[in-house]
Amino acid sequence: MTASRRIDMAEMPVQVPEAPTSAAGARARFFNSGNAFNIKLPAVPAAAFRGEVGVARAMVEAGTSGLVACDQSAVIGGAGIGGAGIGGWTRRPRR
Q1: Which domain of life is it from (predicted)?
Q2: CA dihedral defined by 72, 74, 77, 81, rounded to 10 degrees?
Q3: Distance of alpha carbon 39 from alpha carbon 29, whole angstroms
């Protein structure tokens, strides 16, 4: 009988779906508590969303609500909110 080495959770690889059925599924990654905090991501540059603050204030003053996109995906290489099909911000009346 051979002795098997005990595997530490941090040594387990990140898991991916075997047969993803969508683009989101193909991007999915599954981590465990041993390896989830070992991920090294590129730094997100500092940004001031001054224009977006003005849009949000205007919505409050107009009595509307919506989404104000503070999207930095272009500078970190992602598809962004527009790439996901959501668009900028939408206005709808408050109830």
Answers
A1: Bacteria
A2: 70
A3: 11
Predicted local distance difference test score (pLDDT) of residue 35: 77
Instruction: Indicate the domain borders of the chain.
Output: 11-40, 44-95
List all residues 6 or more positions away from 95 whose beta carbon is below 8 Å from its beta carbon. none
DSSP notation for 15-65? B--SS--SHHHHH--B--TTTGGG---PPPPP---HHHHHHHHHHHHHTEE
**Mean pLDDT throughout 45-72?**
88
Q: What is the pTM of this model?
A: 0.39
How far apart CA 18 and CA 93 sit, in angstroms, is: 44
How far apart (Å, rounded) are the C-alpha atoms in residues 42 and 76?
7
- What does the pLDDT average to over 5-18? 83
What value does the mean pLDDT take over residues 11-20?
Answer: 87
Average pLDDT for residues 45-59, to the nearest whole number?
Answer: 88
